[in-house]
Write a structure and sequence with these properties.
The chain is mainly β. The protein has a single domain, classed as Beta Barrel (Porin). The protein has seven helices and 22 strands. It has helices spanning 21-26, 36-40, 54-57, 147-154, 170-179, 184-195, 409-421; strands at residues 10-13, 69-85, 88-109, 116-130, 133-141, 199-201, 218-220, 229-252, 256-278, 286-311, 316-323, 326-342, 360-363, 367-371, 374-383, 387-397, 402-404, 424-437, 440-449, 460-470, 474-490, 499-516. Strands 2-3-4-8-9-10-11-15-16-18-19-20-21-22 form a 14-stranded antiparallel barrel. A hairpin with a 7-residue loop joins strand 9 and strand 10.
């Protein structure tokens, strides 16, 4: 080996791609987030209206308001994660308190005998998706190690394309590889593996020179321990998707409620993954490995919605709404560091550096992503201002998500994966409300969403309940939401793709205060 230890450090700009299927799913998801009344009734408001979160799912819902109002919500979320990796389970808990939504709606009643009897204009801010999450997994993988990740990216590439040239620093090599067409991010990962001594070159036939620039085959420099490779995987994500909605709606001939939304989204997301592999066999060239990856994504997006509610009679309403894809413009920053403890020719261990001191940071050019749109049908039965029973059914085709430009080779391949691994997801929402007296209402709801992944079952169920207190000029609503999510997450997108089983329980308490103007 030409060195006994290598630590990697860099900060610069490159032209490359590192988006994954996880990004496609993350920015296409939705959640039961909003006002307390909306949350308590399972979000089944497509034909009910009269709530700030209701006109987010059907723009026609704002003209159901009887008065101009302002409102705000406070959310308390408690999360428990159970991460299982090769039979070993680790539980982790976290709590969060934040403003959930703020909104205002202004209702104008027409008294001149026009066919348009009411016009409403609404504004709403909603923390539509909360990305805060953390879990830790640990276990012994009997089959695969991190060498498979680096071999995946290195195999077939010339040694000269994944290594430092004579007189070249690692930073210079990494920068040069990132800017060269046909190399970019994949070759940079191969560079990590080679310069970190995770993989070794296989000399060409008839040669024993392991430094030949034309070498294109590689082998692992690691050996599994007695039971396999011991892995520790710590995942922490932070951020949110903030939604800002501008709404206009009107009532035509007291029967038709029609509305339109323009939505703007701001995304802030950060993800830190620390992976450790150790307990190698006696013949391994490594004794310990730490591979850290940090992703920071910021972006913005826009979408629009059309909606209608038909008032069949005093009791029965039907609703339909269409939401366009959300057109995002996103930019990523990635920092990576690799620390390996390597055995030298004499079997001695070398000193390692602290991986938290610094690492590789890569700024990627802005790219576009179109998340899937949806269609929603709704029905509601309202009985004498005493009770409400509502049902919503919606469809969102996750396989239609697209990274742009579509003719980019990397994005074309990723879009093909999306089409093969994602599918349409159906969402069923049920909600009910019963007014005990003019001052107190009781509510309950249910949300069920089928899997958006073909291979892995990531279906979702949510049970919710709540109460409303009417003070005349104002209301206080309270909701309790319990959600269980099961999913599987690959350690890495390629090579080492063994999966962690995730079982997540969320307890969400929502308080909303509404004031009539």
């Amino acid at each position: 080996m030409k060195k006994s230890f290598f630590f990697l450090l860099l900060s610069f700009c490159v032209q490359t791609n590192a988006q994954t299927l996880s990004d496609a799913l993350r920015y296409g998801q939705n959640s039961l987030a909003g006002s307390a009344r909306y949350t308590a009734m399972g979000g089944a408001f497509g034909a009910v209206g009269g709530d700030f979160s209701a006109f987010e799912v059907n723009p026609a819902g704002s003209s159901v308001f009887g008065f101009s109002e302002i409102a705000g919500s406070l959310n308390f979320i408690s999360t428990t994660n159970a991460a299982t990796y090769f039979g070993n389970t680790i539980d982790e808990n976290a709590n969060d308190l934040a403003i959930g939504h703020l909104g205002a709606v202004f209702v104008l009643n027409e008294e001149s005998g026009s066919n348009w009897s009411k016009l409403s204009i609404g504004f709403n801010y909603n923390k539509s998706v909360n990305y805060d999450n953390s879990f830790t997994a640990e276990g012994t993988n009997p089959n695969n190690g991190i060498d498979q990740y680096f071999l995946f990216y290195a195999q077939g590439k010339y040694l000269s394309d994944i290594s430092q040239l004579d007189g070249e620093s690692f930073n210079e090599a990494f920068n040069d590889i990132g800017e060269r067409e046909g190399l970019g991010y994949p070759a940079q990962q191969g560079l990590f593996g080679y310069e970190g001594y995770v993989i070794n070159p296989i000399p060409l036939a008839g040669s024993d020179d392991p430094t030949d620039a034309n070498i294109r085959d590689y082998s692992s420099n690691t050996q599994a321990g007695t039971r396999g490779y011991t892995h520790q995987y710590a995942h922490t994500s932070l951020g949110q998707s903030k939604r800002y909605t501008i709404n206009i709606s009107g009532v035509f001939k007291e029967k038709f409620y029609l509305g339109f939304n323009i939505n703007h989204f701001n995304i802030e997301y950060s993800e830190l993954i620390n992976f450790r592999e150790y307990n190698y066999g006696s013949q391994s060239g490594l004794r310990d490995l730490n591979f850290e990856n940090e992703l920071i994504t910021i972006g913005r997006g826009n979408s629009f919605q059309l909606g209608a509610i038909y008032k069949f009679d005093q009791n029965l309403r039907f609703g339909i709404s269409l939401e366009s894809p959300t057109y995002y413009r996103l930019s990523d920053r990635v920092r990576q560091s690799l620390v390996t403890e390597v055995v030298d020719a004499n079997g001695a261990f070398t000193q390692t550096l602290d991986p938290t001191a610094s690492g590789i940071e890569t700024f990627f050019p802005e790219y576009q992503y179109n998340s899937p749109g949806s269609i929603r049908g709704s029905v509601a039965y309202i009985y004498k201002d005493k009770a409400v029973l509502s049902l919503d059914y919606s469809v969102r085709d996750f396989s239609s998500a697209k990274f742009i430009p579509k003719d980019d080779a990397f994005f074309r391949s990723l879009n093909q994966q999306i089409g093969q691994e994602f599918q349409s997801s159906q969402q069923l929402q049920l909600g009910g409300e019963y007014r005990l007296n003019p001052f107190i209402s009781l509510r309950a709801g249910y949300w069920a969403q089928t899997a958006s992944k073909i291979i892995l079952d990531n279906q979702l169920e949510i049970i919710s309940a709540g109460a409303g207190f009417n003070f005349g000029a104002s209301n206080l609503d309270v909701a309790l939401q319990m959600r269980n999510t099961t999913d599987k997450q690959a350690l890495f997108s390629n090579g080492l793709t063994d999966r962690i089983g995730l079982d997540r329980d969320d307890f969400n308490l929502v308080f909303t205060y509404r004031l009539k103007l």
